[in-house]
Request: fold
Amino acid sequence: SGQVAAARQFIREALGSQPCTADAVLLASELATNAVLHTASGGGGGFGVAVHQVPALVRVEVTDGGSPAVPTAAGASGARLAPSGRGLLLVEQLAARWGYRGGPDSRVVWCELDRS
Reply:
């Protein structure tokens, strides 16, 4: 999707050559893909990407068009067979923390990475 590619490019440009950039690009891609595939953002409405940098952390946020479903990573035992959720499993593994806020009309799914 063009939105996912734009999210990756935005993160690359925002973070440059920092050690965490490759992981941040990968995680932004996963969060953006989930937003496009599983929410009202599939049509483009409400989609956005932000990155916040503080001395120790980088926080990547993807805003989507909202969904009543709770973002859930597929469990390790079912990850290979689950039709979805593997991207959030990757987020769970690579990010220091991740979560979401919002609800059916607009939601932000975020993850934080150590900057080192």
Observations:
- The two ends are 30 Å apart (CA to CA).
- The longest strand covers residues 57-64.
- The beta strands are 48-53, 57-64, 97-102, 107-114.
- The mean pLDDT is 84.
